[in-house]
Design brief:
This protein has about 475 residues and is an all-alpha fold. The protein contains 30 helices and no strands. The chain is flat, with a radius of gyration of 27 Å. The two termini are about 40 Å apart.
Length: about 475
């Protein structure tokens, strides 16, 4: 899947793509046709950079309800001929998840669309998972025949069926079908379930990787073999090294960290950092100066894992370096530094935004650090990140940091956060939004009564309003 094109944050489309609460608030005051066009654009062209962890489906489903939007565009997208050509589940996954939420809100046409797609669509397994949570037994049983018809009855088809049953995210439909009165259905599903269980047992009996009795040299060789075939094995190799290495092996491990092969060097650096070896920090600095890109990355990662006072003290000296180690030092101070490190963390935060923009991966840790250390001077930068980032998770972290650093958060961003796409962000808003705003009180009541809302959000809501206010 290609990276989505995100519209500017000041536009309705840009707000909805980001999942910001202001997106919903603007959509409800915009011309209905314009709002629905922007909403359909988001649902049919998933705007998330990481669709596996960022939430949008409930956010968009609620907006469909508020706008009384039809589902014709979603139907056309699901059953477009491209569905056969583009089998990546990210093409239809968001639309199916939105339909799932709409079905839970009682939209019958959403349930019917999911059933049709489960029977005929390419990404049928996702639709079946949505139905497993929301459909009744009769609706699921009606899908048994069309789903099983997707699998040939020869050995290859039965093996594919067994793998599908074994790996199913929601097992409810398969359990129902295993008890189907039609033997042609129940027999195939039960056989697939038994085969899947046997496959798991076989995998457990045939482990791959290091064996007891390996030497330090053998572990290094295994790590290098992985590097040569494109598999980074230095992390598990370092754990193996911890099991097989003794005090007498330290000189060999140090030599590997200085000038070993890529796999050996990455493994040795990780092992020495995890064991707080007195030379680990010096070796890490040397690796950043002389190592390949893979070695530099491993060295930086190893440094960031270190918890010792010596590592924090060294980070203070490295924080102003204009390289990967300097960036890592800023993150170490953000996580484990003290009040004396506020200026260094703030400088790292500003530099990351200037150099890499509001979606830089390093910002996740630096934003958390700004909140943890209570860096009030960071509020303007945090507000910029909040507005501009395309990552709803990073925006949520920025909101949490603003709650700790910005006195205006309760009357500002916290209000729109009540409509945010991420439940953790809505929870923060529920705890901080000032109830003097009538929109806040009304939204808190709605969240408290919404059966689709997360329990943590509702707990936060009920800590702000009395039991008599939650009834709607």
């Amino acid at each position: 899947m290609f990276d989505p094109v995100i519209a500017p944050s000041g536009t309705l489309l840009g707000l909805l793509q980001r999942g910001r609460g202001d997106g919903t608030l603007h959509a409800l005051t915009a011309p209905r046709a314009e709002a629905l066009a922007a909403l359909n654009h988001c649902v049919l062209r998933d705007p998330r950079h990481d669709w596996q962890v960022e939430n949008r489906s409930l956010y968009y489903a609620r907006l469909y309800l508020d706008l009384h939007g039809g589902l014709d565009a979603i139907e056309a997208h699901l059953f477009d001929p491209e569905d056969v050509l583009d089998t990546d589940e990210s093409r239809t996954g968001l639309a199916l998840a939105v339909l799932g939420h709409l079905a839970s809100y009682g939209r019958r046409e959403a349930l019917e669309l999911l059933r049709r797609y489960a029977a005929h669509g390419t990404n049928w397994a996702w639709a079946l998972d949505e139905l497993a949570l929301r459909d009744d037994d009769a609706g699921l049983r009606a899908l048994a025949a069309p789903v099983l018809a997707r699998f040939a009855t020869d050995a290859e088809g039965e093996a594919e069926l067994a793998a599908t049953v074994r790996d199913a995210f929601e097992p409810r439909p398969w359990r129902l079908w295993a008890d189907d009165p039609r033997e042609s259905i129940a027999g195939r599903v039960r056989a697939a379930q038994e085969t899947g269980c046997f496959d798991r047992w076989q995998r457990q009996m045939r482990p791959t990787g290091p064996r007891p009795g390996w030497s330090v040299a053998a572990v290094f060789e295994w790590a290098q073999q992985g590097m040569e075939r494109g598999a980074a094995l230095h992390v598990p190799a370092a754990r193996c090294l911890a099991a097989v290495a003794g005090p007498e092996d330290r000189p060999e491990i140090v030599r590997a960290a200085q000038d070993g092969t890529e796999g050996a060097r990455c493994t040795a650096l990780r092992y020495l950092a995890d064991s707080n070896d007195p030379d680990a920090l010096t070796l890490i600095e040397g690796a950043v100066a002389t190592g390949s890109a893979a070695v530099v990355e491993a060295a930086v990662d190893a440094f960031e894992r270190m918890r010792s006072l010596a590592a924090v003290d060294r980070a203070r000296g490295w924080a102003r370096r204009p390289d990967a180690l300097g960036a890592a030092a800023g993150r170490v101070l953000a996580c484990r530094g003290g009040a004396r490190d506020r200026e260094l963390v703030l400088a790292a935060l500003r530099e990351a935004v200037r150099g890499e923009g509001p979606d830089a991966p390093t910002l996740w840790t630096l934003v958390d650090g700004a909140g943890r250390l209570g860096i009030t001077c960071a509020a303007p930068v945090l507000r910029h990140i909040y507005r501009e980032t395309a990552s709803s998770h990073l925006r949520g972290r920025a909101a949490r940091a603003l709650a700790a650093t910005d006195p205006s958060f309760g009357t500002g961003f916290a209000v729109e956060c009540l409509w945010d796409c991420e439940e953790t962000t809505r929870e923060i808003a529920a705890r901080h939004a000032e109830t003097g705003d009538t929109r806040v009180v009304e939204r808190l009541r709605r969240l408290a009564a919404d059966p689709a809302e997360e329990a943590e959000v509702q707990t936060a809501v009920r800590s702000r309003i009395g039991p008599e206010e939650t009834a709607v």
